[in-house]
Amino acid sequence: MQHQGFTSATEALDFIAGGNAVFPIQSEKTGAHFTFKADCPKDKKTGKKDPVQPTRFVKVLADGRNTAWEDQLFVGHFHTGMPGWLKTSRNNPQAADWPSFKALAWALTKLNEARVNGDEIPTGLKVFHEGACCRCNRPLTDPASIQSGIGPECAKKGM
Question: Which domain holds residue 26?
């Protein structure tokens, strides 16, 4: 699958907070990368994902490769109003020592800083999406949607 790179920190953060986003990040310096999935919680009554809720749960592929999500590990969670703040769960505090947690915490912090200081993706960081909508995860076909990472119908619903 072709990865689409973001050039705007705001677009990258909005995509990550979309509620159903798969996003690889990569260090330009080392080439190291991790693939994450940020999900919104499910509504307790309906059992369906609720993108209006501000919490996002983040998982990483366990082996760091772009393969199936069966080998995923829960990394932590963040609040969409504070995307630079990543926290581990009470059940897994050791995740803070994982390279994937440290990489994501650094990336979210730098993206949040960049959003208010020129909005360019920070030097040394690449953030991608896999050509699927960050809310519904359907394939994107419109060039503007591919750039932003959200389809036109989901964009109307807002973040």
Answer: 4-157
Express each pLDDT in 52-66 by its tens digit: 889 999 999 865 554
Identify the H or E element spanning 145.
helix 143-148
Query: Distances in Å between the alpha carbon of 100 and those of 36, 95, 111, 122?
Result: 9, 9, 16, 18
- Six-digit token string for 118: 């020129």
Neighbours of 20 (CB within 10 A): 19
Task: Give the C-alpha separation, 94 to 49, whole Å.
Answer: 27
Q: How far out from the chain centre does Cα 74 lie?
A: 13
End-to-end CA distance of the chain: 25
14-38 pLDDT tens trace: 999 988 898 989 998 888 889 899 9
